[in-house]
Design goal:
This protein is mainly β. It contains 1 helix and 4 strands, in the order H-E-E-E-E. A 4-stranded mixed sheet has the order 1-4-3-2, with no helix packed on it. The two termini are 23 Å apart.
């Protein structure tokens, strides 16, 4: 499954590499800009992996943060790998505000948990991504991804 951020990006989007500074206790959010009425039933999730010193050089370990927002449209989820992922990313530099980002007992930076690999977090066939009965008898739903 292809899960890269902004795979159909425009020239304008590909040239924007803005690093936003946020405080550790700030509330962050993503909004739908172009079409506020998507019309696709599904879930929204955000992943927040830690990046190296420069988020533009992100490889998945240490440093600034790359925020990944994904919308998972489930209207075609009856067949393997047919659920539609809408993915976007933002870069953020998190700074301490009124508290340390370090663990007081170990003295080390807190590591976000649970950790997942992208690509690799979804196969396309797990519950929450493949839903054979989506339009007929779905009575409960478990979101894909790691347990929180």
């Amino acid at each position: 499954m292809r899960l890269s951020a902004n795979p159909g990006k425009t020239q304008r989007a590909s040239s924007v590499r803005e690093l936003n500074t946020v405080h550790a206790d700030d509330e962050l959010g993503f909004g739908i800009n172009r079409n506020p009425h998507l019309g696709h039933p599904g879930i929204q999730q955000v992943y927040r992996p830690k990046a190296p010193d420069k988020a533009a050089d992100y490889d998945g370990s240490g440093g600034e943060y790359l925020l990944r927002a994904e919308g998972l449209a489930l209207h075609a989820a009856q067949k393997w790998a047919c659920a539609q992922f809408y993915v976007s990313c933002a870069q953020a530099k998190v700074v301490a505000k009124n508290r340390s980002l370090r663990n007081s007992s170990s003295g080390k930076d807190e590591e976000p948990r649970p950790l997942v690999s992208i690509p690799g977090v979804y196969s396309g066939g797990e519950p929450g991504v493949l839903i054979p009965v989506f339009w007929s008898s779905l009575t409960n739903y478990t979101a894909p991804g790691p347990a929180l």
